[in-house]
Amino acid sequence: MTGTLPALEAHRLECLRGDIPLFSGLSFGVAPGQIMQVEGANGSGKTSLLRILAGLSPPHEGEVRWRGTRIAHRRAAFLAEIGYLGHHLGLKAELSVGENLRFAFALNGLDLDPQKLEQALDQVGLLDRMDLPVRALSAGQRQRVALARLVSSPAALWILDEPFTALDVGGIALVQRLLEHHAARGGLAVLTSHQAVELRGGLVKLTLA
């Protein structure tokens, strides 16, 4: 989608760890249909940047804008359009796979259509695990549950911190297909990964020094 204006914009972001700057003066934009991969050495601030972009942590300086407006000024509307996948998956071990997805939607005041639930679980290869408690799943299967929650949501912006964690070769290919499909529908994403990412249409890369 060349020529499309950015929907997500970072303006002169600065992030500190204690008194030490992880990055400063950081500006960029991500347009609909684009996938950005944030690269950098351990400790360079990749996770911190994703948390700032998701509105979970404030920057020391600078601002993040969504559709032209500072996210701090339209927080509820912004959160309704974002899907965040971090190191903590936010799953409830005692609930079933299906119950976890329905619970996530209920927290946002939404109902999850049964057909959409089944479609999402089928996409990630867990349809036959829908009634199993999450505690009975492997780490890779739990990651797939979190991915199903993401693809079943209406989120236009995906922010993914190491989405390939605990996944096998098939799971890695699955994430790449989901990203391609999301971009093809006009969605956008920012992700970190130690795994090589290969997408049809390519990636925009941002390197933190």
UniProtKB/TrEMBL annotation:
What keyword terms does UniProt attach to this protein? Answer: ATP-binding, Cytochrome c-type biogenesis, Membrane, Nucleotide-binding, Translocase, Transport
Residue intervals of the ABC transporter domain: 8-209
One annotated GO biological process? cytochrome complex assembly
By its UniProt entry, which SMART domains does this protein fall under?
A: AAA
- What InterPro entries does the record tag this protein with? AAA+_ATPase, ABC_transporter-like_ATP-bd, ABC_transporter-like_CS, ABC_transptr_haem_export_CcmA, P-loop_NTPase
Q: Which Pfam families match?
A: ABC_tran (PF00005)
A GO MF annotation of the entry reads: ATP binding
State the name under which the record lists this protein. Heme exporter protein A
The species this protein was found in? Methylomagnum ishizawai
